[in-house]
Specification:
Layout (H helix, E strand, L loop, with lengths): L4 H25 L3 H25 L3 H32 L14
Length: about 110
């Protein structure tokens, strides 16, 4: 029977780097607020895959799982607040471009 541990590690690391890169591109090039938030969310998913791989590589899966659950709770709260802010931005600027956000007053 083959040991697929090295292959799984390589796939996890590649997937993590790919998600982080795609998320960074989406965050930095997105003109609309919602695209930037989605890019940030994709980056977080890449970081969570990296946490899974680190836990697997160091045989600390329970620690890795607890960190991931904590990160998911923080992500949920963060996305709730950010999506509420995005709704307010779209009320004042229906196009949602971030270049026009410096004119918000309130």
């Amino acid at each position: 029977m083959r040991d697929y541990g090295a292959l799984i590690g390589t796939v996890n690391q590649t997937l993590s780097a790919f998600l982080l890169a795609i998320g960074a591109i989406g965050l930095l090039t997105g003109k609309k607020v919602i695209k930037q938030v989605l890019g940030l969310n994709i980056m977080l998913q890449g970081a969570l895959v990296a946490l899974i791989e680190a836990g697997r590589a160091h045989k600390e899966l329970l620690l890795s799982q607890s960190l991931i659950v904590s990160a998911l709770v923080v992500e949920t709260v963060f996305l709730t607040v950010v999506l509420g802010l995005i709704i307010n931005v779209y009320r004042h600027h229906p196009q949602g471009h971030t270049d026009r956000l410096d004119r918000l007053k309130g």
